[in-house]
Design a protein that fits this description.
By secondary structure, the protein is an alpha/beta fold. It contains 13 helices and 14 strands. It has a domain of 198 residues: Rossmann fold (3-Layer(aba) Sandwich), CATH 3.40.50.
Amino acid sequence: MTEDLSRREFLGVGAVVAGASLVGTPIIPSSSPARRAPQVAPSNRVRFGIIGVGMQGSSLLAESIKFADVECVAACDVYDGRHTLAREIVRPDLPVTRRYQQLLEDRTIDCLIVAVPDHWHKQIVLDAVSAGKDVYIEKPMSHNPADGVAMVEAAKRSGRIVQVGSQRVSSQICAKARELISKGTLGDLMMVEAWLGRNSPSGAWQYPPPPDLSPQNLDWNTWLGTAPKRPFDPILFARWRAWKEYGTGVAGDLLVHLVSGFIVMTGLNQPPTQTMTVGGIRRWKDGRNTPDVQLVQYYYGDLPVSMRLNLGTSIEETYRFHGSKGLLEVTASSVTFSPQVGTDQSPSYYASSFPRALREAYFAKWHAENDPRPGQAPLSEVISFRGPGYNDIRPHLWNFFDAVRTRKPVVEDAVFGHNAALACHMANDSYYKRSAV
């Protein structure tokens, strides 16, 4: 991403998101004449191709083929070793290629799963929807704000389904939290905080490159794409998230999960109003140019939101929603609400500054008006729900395949994905500029 997001970019962003609706609303109505006829076969079977069969792509592929009436018919990757991996997952004779354009030309393919480095997201999505394919694109949706604008416009223009891959959006845990917040259980929302941390080399993307990786079995120039040209480097190939030329750092890998969860739980499907970030490369001084510690302060309208990412200390992913009626804590598998009455539970300590006679009279009057009758003291109450962890990708993938088949709206369309990614781009831009965005 560029280190300076221009006013022109953000004006373009504003034009796109100005009419953004709530989560789950399609970008254009399903009855729009611009929408092409679905390509799903009469058997109702969804045939998909996958572009990118790396760590995340191979996981998406393995889960997708478990669904009934969903079939992988082709795989693409610029590294030949992942052709072998795709065939190991699906079947030995699966068609494979280095050129994703071959999947776009195949009229029997209904939709695509795309799991490639961030700097390739825009071009593949634009080409895919122009070819009449529905797309599941990994998070973050875009590599920079301008790419996101182009992707939203392409999805709208083509009428194709675009679902972004942030699993929190399909989580039962997040749905329960959204229900509690929307019905006013918390009262007035005061502030929100969230955090997530890792403490391992793999957690900081120090992945081992494939031992056989070479210019002979990897199309290095295509992998670089629009990024600056440089000699073949297995480290960059495996650890691309740590370099802003290809990825979006801890913001695009982890912060986007926190932001997506926040958006779906609060219904605030919009970019932040203002962002301020501090952080640095505190531990993983391996040549990367993105921070491994990032503390982000947002304003969503006038709501203060604080999000903290750390690749040097393990911290369970957690949200805390502070409300006038209590505190809501959300973890990967639980929602806990601790009510607060918001009234004095004892005489005001300010009365200690009264002269004795006034103080004692105040105390006597307060107790007479507020003390419960014997045996009628209120019991403290904590409401807790437990459910499937929100890292489960199956519901999110199923939502996509079901939308391809039925043309129903997806839960995380291009507008939602764009708004979540914008929060990450703003956080990165603030970090590099050392000023508010």
